[in-house]
Amino acid sequence: MPTSLIWSFSSWVLWDMVCRTVWFISVSVAEAQVASIAEPLLLNAVRGDDVERPPVWLMRQAGRYMKSYQTLCERYPSFRERSENVDLVVEISLQPWKVFKPDGVILFSDILTPLSGMNIPFDIVKGKGPVIFDPLQTADDVVQVREFVPQESVPYVGEALTILRKEVDNKAAVLGFVGAPFTLASYVVEGGSSKHFSKIKRLAFSQPKVLHALLQKFTTSMTKYIRYQADSGAQAVQIFDSWATELSPVDFEEFSLPYLKQIVDAVKETHPDLPLILYASGSGGLLERLALTGVDVVSLDWTVDMAEGRRRLGPNIAVQGNVDPGVLFGSKEFITSRINDTVRKAGRGKHILNLGHGIVVGTPEENVAHFFEVAKDIRYG
């Protein structure tokens, strides 16, 4: 064979090998990019896409039941320090992610975090809970409440969410959260937690205009806060209206529902694809009204049968929940049976498996691990 033909053939072989190598690398890079940008299971489930199992995360999944959190608390005893330091917020938020790999990684924070930026001094005292140093009582007090500017007041929240988004890398959804207007108002009027909510009700029923003015300030501020969290990396945001169920249905329609709806409508104008989850403990008597807020997901507590909750809310809204947190003190077999019962009653799709409230202090960590293991092994038939 002539030397020129040999060189020509060799060049062709070399060129073919180069092309194949480039193609292989391109395909591999493309596949890796697709894997990294694929949306988390939780977002797909909320939209109603076909998913193989319900996504799972647990309220208070980062917290006092974990040994790693207890160790960190010994070094940093102040809750506000733990929840307002970027490095600590990220570390605590990721503790359950590293151990259990939930489908949702929620920011470690508190619904009262914005208060300092609204000229409402507070602290969270160990063994006592939230303390508002100067409870609001009059119209003049409400005038002194500033509108919340999250970029200025809580930049650490935005920084932490951005880091979490990078760390989790779409393997789970990063979740933010805020307090609902009525619940925030209850804290700042009562001066902290309450059993009877007599002060907020006295204000509501004797000076409703004053309460409405306060609720509007919280509504405007929480709308900004949700947008800020979304812009910083949160892929879904849960709204906690913990004390709304202290209201009668007719009072809920006046002092909570319109403000929740206002938040949802305003957020959807700027962030139409951001899933909003609403949780109100003890909300069995208000389910249909919760759906009227326009949220994407209603989180049920354990006092509502999941099948009944599904029926009352209808097929167009997703549900979250609702295993009794106390179940985690039971045997592994018992935990498994309750998980399966909840998933069966929720039906296929549009369901986020969760508890009906946060994990209780003292819950065995190995039982939480079992909950996640069982949940992630579930497959829809």
UniProtKB/TrEMBL annotation:
Pfam family, one: URO-D
A single MF term (Gene Ontology): uroporphyrinogen decarboxylase activity
EC code: 4.1.1.37
Record-linked Gene3D superfamilies: 3.20.20.210
Keywords, in A-Z order: Chlorophyll biosynthesis, Decarboxylase, Lyase, Porphyrin biosynthesis
Domain of life assignment: Eukaryota
Pathway: Porphyrin-containing compound metabolism; protoporphyrin-IX biosynthesis; coproporphyrinogen-III from 5-aminolevulinate: step 4/4; Porphyrin-containing compound metabolism; chlorophyll biosynthesis
Entry's Gene Ontology cellular component terms: chloroplast
Catalyzed reactions per annotation: uroporphyrinogen III + 4 H(+) = coproporphyrinogen III + 4 CO2
InterPro entries with a match to the protein in the record: UROD/MetE-like_sf (IPR038071), Uroporphyrinogen_deCO2ase_HemE (IPR006361), Uroporphyrinogen_deCOase (IPR000257)
Main EC class the enzyme belongs to: lyase
Domain Uroporphyrinogen decarboxylase (URO-D): 55-64, 175-191
PROSITE patterns registered for this protein in UniProt: UROD_1, UROD_2
GO BP terms in the entry: chlorophyll biosynthetic process; protoporphyrinogen IX biosynthetic process
Localization: Plastid, Chloroplast
Subunit structure comment from the entry: Homodimer.
Record-stated family: Belongs to the uroporphyrinogen decarboxylase family.
Function comment: Catalyzes the decarboxylation of four acetate groups of uroporphyrinogen-III to yield coproporphyrinogen-III.
Listed name of the protein: Uroporphyrinogen decarboxylase
